[in-house]
Amino acid sequence: MYKYVVFFFAFLLHANENAKYIGSLLCDPPTAIPYTHFVIRNFLFFDDHRGIYQSNWESSSRRDSYNSIQFELQTFSGLGSFFDISLSARFYCTQKGRYAYCNTGDLVAGLDFQLLEDEKFPFLPGVKFAVREVFPLGNYQLFDLKRGDMEKTGSGCFSTQLALFFYKGYRFSQNWSFSTILEMQYQINSAVTVKGFHAYGGGFGTDGKLLVGNAWRALANLQAFYGKPFSLSLDVLYEHYDGSIFYGHPGLNFFGRPCNTRQPSSERVSLAPSITYQFPSQVGVMVGSWLSICGRNAEQFIQYVANVFYIF
Q1: Under 8 Å between Cβ of 134 and 154
Q2: What 3-state class would DSSP assign to 151?
């Protein structure tokens, strides 16, 4: 009986000590970075904007399909024994035919607080609380007609994100270990002034204010580690966006009729499988893809992603 109890408690201990600081393609590190340590994650996304999910969950191809490349830099720096500061910046380049466009994206800054260590109790997961603020530095309005949505690199509104992370590691054998992450996030958006063709629609002469609907997401992640260097990961992400309300002059569409300013609610489910290799120098490489599988009033896409990360 004693040996089974020992085996059970060993199963609840993770074999890869860096697992909780790596995160995944879609999830930040689920544990606050310790004091004097930091994590840097460099993402490169190649997007294929291929279609639209209609209100009846049916998908349709878009005539103005285009490709884009995004670079994202994320940093997490430990400031105390239980909290860290995070910064995230993006840069976009899009291309369609002979047209191209490059610009910065929104800036995200926040604090992470470790409420419960994952190793403190064998039956309870680690819990992290995060609060972040989105600063609208990206372009979101007055689009050029020749490029259209290609010029969208930001939301135009200030946003506050509140998130909870639950993390637990498990040892299956001497070489194999697993970890699970559950993330739940709620985002509160501010109103935004919009003119002309913008990230939320618009048309000729559009001039008004948009009350951007709030959003929430739920993410589940499973990672399997073979020793220390190799790991396989799968993210399952559900996103929901509330409808937005417009006040002002709606403007005219290409047919000379008033633009439809109604912004309905939307939702989408997506998957992100990846593989990671971590070198002995605490540098690692993560590659994978992120693709939507179903949705409503949302974009259909596939992204190919590479991430080079450093843990110091």
Answers
A1: no
A2: helix
Helix locations, the chain, DSSP H: 2-11, 19-22
**CA gap 222, 256 in Å, rounded:** 51
CA distance 27 to 10: 26
Under the banding of pLDDT at 50, 70 and 90, the label for residue 73 is: very high
SS3 content of the chain, % helix, strand, coil (to 5): 5, 60, 35
Q: What is the pLDDT of residues 117-131, one digit of tens each?
A: 998 888 899 999 999
- Please answer whether residues 295 and 58 qualify as being in contact, where contact means their C-beta atoms are separated by less than 8 angstroms: no
Residue 11, helix vs strand vs coil: helix
Structure tokens at 161: 């994100």
Class of domain 2-311: mainly beta
How far from chain centre, in Å, is Cα 175? 30
Bridge partners of 205?
none
Reading the block at residue 197, the tokens are 């063709």
Q: Quick one: 97 exposed, middle or buried, by C-beta within 10 A (0-12, 13-18, 19+)?
A: exposed
pTM above 0.70, yes or no: yes
Q: Check residue 11 and give its pLDDT.
A: 46
- CA 243 to CA 173: how far, in whole Å? 48
Where are the domains positioned within the chain? 2-311
- Token pair recorded at residue 24: 């995944």
Contacts of 31 (CB under 8 A, 6+ apart): 20, 21, 114, 118, 126, 128, 165, 167
For residues 195 and 229, is the Cβ–Cβ distance under 8 A? no
Bridge partners (DSSP) of residue 73 are 42, 89
